[in-house]
Amino acid sequence: MTVLLQPMQKLFYLIFDEANSDSDRLRAALIGEVIPVLRRSGAQEIGLFVSDEAVSAGKPTQQSDPPIRAALSFFLADVETREAAEAAIRPLAADLAGYRVRESRPIVHARNEGRRMPGMMQLTCIAARPGIGMEEFHRIWHEDHLQVAVETQATFGYVRNEIIHSITEGAPERWAGIVEESFPIEALEDPMVFFDAKTSGELSDNLTRMVKSCQRFIDLENLEVTFMSEYYFD
């Protein structure tokens, strides 16, 4: 008898809280209270991202009020079984925005089980540039922009999450995707490291090339950038 395996669906939750809230307490609660619930719910490949003291030197671009302070991603066999996970997260946040997403991993990096990953992760929520069709938006993002990102940044991990639809009431609808990019920790404060440059001329060239590529398909007015520490639980 042939057994058909049900495809897993990836869910992505943005966790909003006050800028001065205790990030260490939030991380501890997410690990101690939420991760066990996710595991009991059958979640796989759980990613936890927290804007904590380890990445406080970064200068985020935050449009939301309150801002994004953490995020959770995981795979479920059925998106309709997510209620227990959401119920565990909600008491820890001022607000919560959940999305069903389609994942692709252009750059795969090793994931430490339960321990903070080296470096930092830049979490970017992106919206499509006004006037561009979604087919062209995704083509540029997946094809043209990928090459630019790889060649102009010190990225060692890169995950694209195309937003299919929101799954929580009131979740912002302006974003078309959520990007996870892992960098050396020095990239938080040193643009030479971030843009993988050896000289000021190379820094200028890489920065200009990246900005021009983003302008082709991203609405920069609705960009949301948050720096995170990464944790993974299989």
Instruction: Determine the N-to-C terminus distance.
Output: 29 Å
What would you report as the Rg, rounded to the nearest angstrom?
Answer: 18 Å
Average of pLDDT = 93
Percent helix, as a range, is 25-40%
CATH fold name: Alpha-Beta Plaits
- DSSP helical segment count: 5
What does this 3D model show about the protein?
This protein is α+β, with helices and mostly antiparallel strands. It has a single domain, classed as 2-Layer Sandwich (Alpha-Beta Plaits). It is built from five helices and eight strands; from the N terminus they run βαββαββαββααβ. It has helices spanning 23-40, 83-89, 134-152, 191-194, 200-217, and strands at residues 9-16, 44-50, 68-76, 95-107, 120-126, 157-166, 177-183, 224-233. The protein has an eight-stranded antiparallel β-barrel. The longest helix has 19 residues, at 134-152. The protein is globular and about 50 Å long. The model is unreliable at 1-5 (pLDDT under 50).
Secondary structure elements and pairings:
Blueprint: E1 9-16, H1 23-40, E2 44-50, E3 68-76, H2 83-89, E4 95-107, E5 120-126, H3 134-152, E6 157-166, E7 177-183, H4 191-194, H5 200-217, E8 224-233
Antiparallel strand pairs: 1-3, 1-4, 2-3, 2-8, 4-6, 5-7, 5-8, 6-7
Helix pairs in contact: 1-2, 3-5
Summarize the structure.
The chain is of the alpha+beta class. It has five helices and eight strands, in the order E-H-E-E-H-E-E-H-E-E-H-H-E.
Keywords, separated by commas or semicolons:
234 residues; Alpha-Beta Plaits; eight-stranded antiparallel beta barrel; 5 helices; 8 strands; 28% helix; globular; disordered N terminus
